[in-house]
């Protein structure tokens, strides 16, 4: 199967770089899957889980991201994430901390649009919390 280059970058480090067969991205307008030769695209991403099917790997890699940007171009896919962590390293306590931080941000936000966006982030994190159990 054909593959393409994928990089996941956070402010702290390059979390992943390598050839992959596909990546499912939690876009702000809905999840989308990037495959080889995907049309160019730029999207914001919401808090959620990225599913990476690495070339030759038996099981997909799942990574939680707290938002950011996805850029699909002829060279591959680059995700610039605010924060990212492997799902297996995401403890219930850490997820509760993420929800609390998002709630504090929502409470401190002024303006209708900013408040709506902050409340949306809280809702998305709570949905993720339910999904991951």
UniProtKB/TrEMBL annotation:
Q: Could you name the domain of life of the organism this protein comes from? A: Bacteria
Q: How does it assemble?
A: F-type ATPases have 2 components, CF(1) - the catalytic core - and CF(0) - the membrane proton channel. CF(1) has five subunits: alpha(3), beta(3), gamma(1), delta(1), epsilon(1). CF(0) has three main subunits: a, b and c.
Q: Which UniProt keywords apply?
A: ATP synthesis, Cell membrane, CF(1), Coiled coil, Hydrogen ion transport, Ion transport, Membrane, Transport
Biological role stated in the UniProt entry:
Produces ATP from ADP in the presence of a proton gradient across the membrane.
- What SUPFAM superfamilies is this protein classified in? Epsilon subunit of F1F0-ATP synthase N-terminal domain
Organism (species): Labrys miyagiensis
Domain (ATP synthase F1 complex delta/epsilon subunit N-terminal): give its ranges: 4-84
What topology does the record note for this protein and the membrane?
Peripheral membrane protein
InterPro entries from the UniProt entry: ATP_synth_F1_dsu/esu, ATP_synth_F1_dsu/esu_N, ATPsynth_dsu/esu_N
Annotated coiled-coil segments of the chain: 85-119
What name goes with this protein? Answer: ATP synthase epsilon chain
* Stretch forming the signal peptide: none
Question: Which compartments does it reside in?
Answer: Cell membrane; Endomembrane system
- Family the entry assigns: Belongs to the ATPase epsilon chain family.
């Amino acid at each position: 199967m054909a593959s393409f280059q994928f990089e996941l970058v956070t402010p702290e480090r390059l979390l992943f770089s390598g050839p992959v067969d596909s990546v499912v991205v939690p876009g702000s307008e809905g999840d989308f899957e990037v495959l080889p030769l995907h049309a160019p695209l730029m999207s914001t991403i919401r808090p959620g889980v990225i599913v990476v099917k690495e070339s030759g790997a038996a099981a997909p890699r799942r990574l939680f991201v707290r938002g950011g940007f996805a850029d699909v171009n002829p060279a591959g896919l680059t995700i610039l994430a605010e924060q990212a962590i492997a799902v297996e390293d995401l403890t219930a306590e850490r997820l509760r901390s993420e929800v609390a931080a998002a709630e504090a941000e929502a409470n401190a936000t002024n303006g209708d649009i900013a408040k709506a966006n902050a409340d949306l982030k809280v809702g998305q994190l709570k949905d993720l919390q339910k999904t991951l159990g």
